[in-house]
Amino acid sequence: TGYEWRTSLVIQRSLDGGQWENLTDGDGNVYVVTLYGKEGQDSASTLVTDLPNYVISNNQLTPCQYRAAELPAGWTDGDGTDQYLENGDSYNGSYTVAYTQSGTTLTVTNTMATTQVEADKQWIADPGNVPTNIILELKYLDADGTTWKSFSPTARVVLNGQADPNPSLPYYEMAPDNATNWNAVWTDVPLVMPDSQLDAQGHTQYKVFEVTVPSGFQMTQNSATSITNTQTIAPSVHKNWGLGIGTSLPTSVTVELRRNGQTVDTVTLTAANGWRATFSAQPKYDSAGDLYTYT
Q: Which strands, in side-by-side order, build the sheet including 95-102?
């Protein structure tokens, strides 16, 4: 197609400055112009020519006034042109329409309503054992109510535990609260994304995701905008046998791993695995930062 966005406007005429009607050509077709733009292009224009300055109305020479009225998002040829947007109306649920005129230049401005999303990234780990280059991504909930969709391009922030001194994008790392509580912000986020699931206030629902959980840590999604990484350990067990004369080994032995007295994992030891096994990764600390005891 060669473009990323498009919008259509109907050309209208007024003979009294109050009543507007759609302009038509000699065949009765409504005069509609469509503007196209690419990613990052925030405006487009066209020149409408050969419009008469005067017409005969009620046997009088009457001056003409013209304006461009924006049609709803998604309008295509063949759709009706009576549902054009008035000043202050919403375009695509995300923008507010405003019309201005300077001389013969008619301008339609769509202003996006925005919000700001802040996220915190917490670490529970051994002192000095905090990874860097952690990537958080902001996504929005699709209209299906299930799929979290990425922006294009993706809205990702790289965290290193220090504020970005010269952010070039509207999303960046802010100053950390401390060495283990980092912060990110996404500014100029659309209050309403097209084709998204809305909350009770009619706003798009957003959520922050950790792109890759660092090795040796597990991730807990505390809320839509809060993530904690907790350092993990992988306990192992080795079963030694002291057999008396005429005693044979069992086929297998089941061993439990207990965290503060509660069973959290089991493994089966056999001759095939050398009576050795490693339990699944377990958090080293609780949510308060206290060490767990494993037996």
A: 90-91, 95-102, 105-112
